[in-house]
Design goal:
Layout lengths: L1 H72 L7 H11 L3 E5 L3 H6 L6 H7 L6 E8 L6 E10 L5 E9 H7 L3 E2 L4 E7 L4 E3 L23 H13 L3 E6 L4 E8 L6 E8 H34 L3 H52 L4 H32 L8 E4 H19 L2 E6 L6 E4 L1 H17 L6 E8 L7 E10 L6 H4 L12 H4 L7 H12 L2 E7 L3 E12 L16 E4 L12 H10 L21 E5 L3 H12 L4 E5 L2 H10 L7 E4 L8 H9 L11 E5 L4 H10 L3 E4 L4 H12 L2
Parallel strand pairs: 12-14, 19-20, 19-21, 21-22, 22-23
Antiparallel strand pairs: 1-4, 2-3, 3-4, 5-6, 6-7, 6-10, 8-9, 9-10, 11-13, 12-18, 13-17, 14-15, 15-17, 16-17
Helix pairs in contact: 1-7, 7-8, 8-9, 9-14, 9-15, 10-11, 10-15, 11-14, 11-15, 17-18
Length: 745
Amino acid sequence: MKKKKSLYLPIIITLLLLGCLGTGVWLFANAVGRELWTNSIKTVAETTRQKANAIQSLLDDDFSRLSLLKDYLSDKPPENLGKVVSSCQSVDPDVFFYILGNPELNNALELELDEAAREYLETVPHTSGFINSHENTITGENVFGIFQKAFMADGTPLFLIKEYRTLEIAQQFPLNFFDYTGYSYLVDQDGVIMVRPRLRRNGYTDNLLDMISPELNSPQLIQLFRSRLQEGRSGWHRFANQETEFVLCYEPLSPDSQWLLISVVPEEVINRQTTSILEKTMLFSGSLVLIILIIAAVFSGSRRSEEKAHTQELKQALAAADAANKAKGQFLMNMSHDIRTPLNAIIGMTAVAKEYANDKHRTADCLEKINISGKHLLSLVNDIMDMSQIENGAMILQEEPLRLSRLYREVLELMEFLARESQVTLHSDFLPPENDIISGDPIRIRQVLINVIGNAIKYTPAGGQVSLEFSQAGPASDASAVYQFCCTDTGIGMEPEFLKKMFRSFERSRNTTKSGIAGMGIGLTIAKGLLDLMGGSISAESEAGKGSSFLIEFRFATLTELPEEDASADPVNIETDLPSSQDSPNSPEDPAVSAQSAAEAPQEAVSPQDNAGSVVDFTKKRVLLVEDVELNMEIAEAILGITGVQIEKAYDGQEAVQMVLSNPCRYYDLIFMDIQMPVMDGYEATRRIRGMDREDAWSIPILALSANALAQDVENSKKAGMDGHLAKPIDIDLLQRTLRQYCAG
């Protein structure tokens, strides 16, 4: 009897555990589902509000322009109207004029207006307002507009109308989201659709209220929705029709506007994210249940050999899961430590600078340390971004002609300083290659070499040695050649088991706390990823306590000459043997940061003087600074202001276009253009400027000044017509050197 009870007990315990687990999973799934659903609705509502604000901002600007025109026309006699109309329409062809109750004068001045707008204006009691969506009787296009009523000097009433083509508005303000499963519509207070997404041009209905089935929804809820539209209020509701259930989020363009932006999202799309999370939760729960069943089966008493097999499988599964968790945990620990270190310096030195504000020497020292720490922090961010681009297949290599010997010499000069600071002897044997001129990406080639050499110096104790060898591996064939680079050090070396995983992301043989060497463990991973993109390879040999050796092979297309050969920089045999130095000069910048900056920077430094070598007077130069964030505007303005240059400011792309358009040719010597801005982004603004019918449309230098700093962002800037790209955070010296480069003439 006792034996039977002992057999039933594990089963009862297992069933109780499964019941508790199932209840917990069910409660958890419901709570997560409600929270995710609520957050999704908030996201849709916020997206709708931002789009509504952007459209209202456009309307507000145009209302202001119409108001200025109204004030200008108030004291003008009708006989001067023809010149005014011609001048205004040359600037904006979508501005129309209509003289109320005087068809003869309209005909005489050829003021043509579509019939629908004319009939509305002749009955409207307001002096300004909106013209709802309709088909233009002249062009046949679907349009809507705004108007402003003015009275000329003799009391003649005149309407100024700004007309919008609905198709252009849909293109200017993307009305699709959630991978084209959700759409936004511009409607009037009766629900009549004025602007719909381009993909829904021939949509299901002309009135958004027709999407709501009366038989499937509460009449009170439908009436509430109608009244809220009439009142111009914001909110959201769930509705249904014969096809699907959906959510409507609505937002007025402004408190007194007659128009609203309404976003329609199928409820199944909102639930999709919740379902995905819940499926993963159930998968995890199922796996956990499976483990419990395996343990119960083993515990219940299978044969001894089967028990060992199941136990071994369980250990392997747990070990794999533990290894994955440790890798993630190690990355988080490294990242947290290495990012907090410069942050601590920045915050701490800021506090010290405040405390000793009257001590110029102490304050300058604090600011320099803040600068060094900021650059180090930026290098960590750059590493993470590079790793992300490589893993996602988004890294783009830039092919350009270059001389290998010159590039290698630049890298060597940089690493010599790092070696001296680390008290490590750096020896280099460079055999001039037969094919020295190749086509490749100099920034990424330099990054690979710096990462490998810098890694060797970092893990070599003071007094050790790092040896470098660079040569061409045989003659060129098929217009390409193979080049070999070997880096050998007498450092701490690596264990055999670590050699198998050393090129994986975030792997280190010792963590920062134990080794005292900072880094997130992705330098070699980045180097291997870049070599894979170049068609090259990297391998390593190492022995713990005796050092490591890395062999890299590059394959590049060979060239016969550079486009603009620099005779003063002919290749030479590069050979150096630098002993360690206790008295090497201190650098104002962290050597590791210098190495990272040299590998990452997409811009090339320019001379601080003009071509004649003299100091440039910028007081007569004028720069247009385009930036929507007030703090960023203040920083850039302060940096540029040091040179004495004249600065004019625009806070979005459309304002920048108008400022260029309203000023004479060559009024601006240089334009610094942000990318992500409301109303109109920097790409579109640049395209608009380049497309202007004026002499300086393509001669005005336009440079991106943006936090979008990936290779694809640089490429997009060039495609839009920009002359260059400067990444934020702003480098003071680089910004001022760039100003000198483009404004020295």
